[in-house]
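lol ok so funny story. i was supposed to be doing the assay writeup but got distracted and ended up predicting the structure for this chain instead. priorities right. anyway since i did it might as well share w the group, maybe its usefull for someone
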Amino acid sequence: MDPSQYDAAATLRDGGPVRLRALRPGDRAALQDGFAHLSERSIYQRFFQTKRELTDTDLKYLTELDFVDHVGLVAVIPGGTPEGQIIGVGRFVRGQHRETAEVAFVVGDDFQGRGVATLLLEHLARIARAVGVSTLEADVLPDNTQMLEVFQHSGLSMEERVRDGVVHVRLDL
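and the output, tada:
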């Protein structure tokens, strides 16, 4: 499997179609636009800080992936542009230990609760296993109950512990 060519059809919890595909440098403008429509709460839960916009450095990091140590997927629904509308992004980044990667997600406020992050996690886990990652980790703010529920209901063996006011989650693939 070549993660840079990943493309899969799926169904949202409400029955709507969604496409999960590899994130590309050409998604830069769509990510910037999506970020501009996120609530302050969603931004804080994803980045652990407030941000008004994504900088050029942020956008380069978020869109120029090697698909070896940094893999990203977008969830796209029909509409908006001929390519569709990006409603969510998920990624994993390998750390110093090659078999472990940090995973993170952001889903547009209007699309939360429809299973977008669940699907992104499922597909990222599939890719992670294929490239030799055996553990996904995430730091989640305690009030981000939706993200914690995604991890808890993933079907993956999960450990969680709180340190410095943040829930550290480990998922065994």
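The beta strands are 7-11, 17-22, 70-77, 85-94, 100-107, 135-140, 157-163, 166-172. The domain at 3-172 is CATH 3.40.630.30 (Aminopeptidase).
back to the writeup now i swear
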